[in-house]
Amino acid sequence: MVDKLSIVIPVYNEQDAVGFFLDELYSFLKSQNFEWEIVIVNDASSDDSLKVIEEFVSQKNLGDSVKIVNQPFNRGYGASIKRGIVEAGYDWVLTIDADGQHIPSDIGKLVSAASENVQMVIGTRDAGHRQKTSRKIGKAVLGLVARYLTGHRLPDLTSGLRLFQKKYFVRYFNILPRGFSLSTTSAIAFLNDGLNVVFAPIDIRERKSGKSKVKAYDGLRVIMLIMRLVMIFAPLRVFLPMSFVLFLIGLASLVVDIINFNISDTTVLMFVSSLIIFFFGLIADQIAALRRQ
Ligand SMILES: Nc1nc2c(ncn2[C@@H]2O[C@H](COP(=O)(O)OP(=O)(O)O)[C@@H](O)[C@H]2O)c(=O)[nH]1
Ligand SMILES: [Mg+2]
Predict the structure, then answer these.
(1) How far is the CA of 214 from the centre of ligand 1 (A)?
(2) Dmax over Cα atoms in the chain, in whole Å?
(3) What is the pLDDT of residues 178-224, one digit of tens each?
(4) What is the model's pTM?
(5) 135/138 Cα distance (integer angstroms)
(6) φ and ψ at 26, to 5 degrees?
(7) In contact, 97 and 12? CB cutoff 8 Å
(8) CA proximity to 166, closest of 230, 241, 89
(9) Which amino acid residue places its CA nearest to atom 12 of ligand 1?
(10) CA-CA distance, 144 to 73, in Å (whole number)?
């Protein structure tokens, strides 16, 4: 049961949205029967976000329940979430976007889905919600990789609205990136260790104003993220098949060589590469296990 909740809100240049969002959030929280605190991580916004936030806090007289953390320079979404979690005082932490896309009353849906035996609840958006095609493709590819790595089908890996137990999340601090891919990586880390991740359907709106800062789901970035995920969570799943394919090619080449009565360079190269990749796989697997400890 969630009876105390720390709400971590990453903010970067949201002057036109964050005031509306905080108002809406506060109206929702007032009506709830759990204790709460808000941790706002202002990531060196260059607009008036901080002013808007401070005005809200003083207007509503929330000095005791709202903590504002100002990052000295822009360090990214993931880094800010981590910072917010460090500052969070309660066992359960909820993250939510400040751009007005999430509907605060949906927090109730996540809270009802949580229990001692659930380590993370991800607010899942309808796949049909409007977004750029490149982003949809990127997410679809990521979804497939995540499924391969974890053996679970994951309806939404990138949602910023999620609720989790702090003590589990902090275990993964050293492997979590400082950008937006923190969302995907943390979900896979939880699943990979057999923690319970459940999904709660939520709604999503257009952002209030300004535009999305996510560049993470296009082409090269997706490939880089996939490589990182594989190397952290399941290197053997890539190295072993690769080594096996090279071995098979070597074998086929060997058959041809026997017929020709001459061992060719190709055969030797294929066998040697297969062997090297196999042993690299073993090493990568050990390094990954160490990093995940
Ligand atoms: N702390 C921090 N927050 C960020 C950064 N970039 C975006 N955000 C916040 O993260 C949330 C989601 O960002 P957004 O660009 O709307 O992503 P999208 O909703 O996935 O398109 C919003 O509250 C942003 O203010 C950043 O560099 N640092
Ligand atoms: Mg957004």
Answers:
(1) 7
(2) 89
(3) 999 999 999 999 998 899 999 999 999 988 777 888 766 667 888 88
(4) 0.90
(5) 5
(6) -65, -40
(7) no
(8) 89
(9) 97
(10) 35
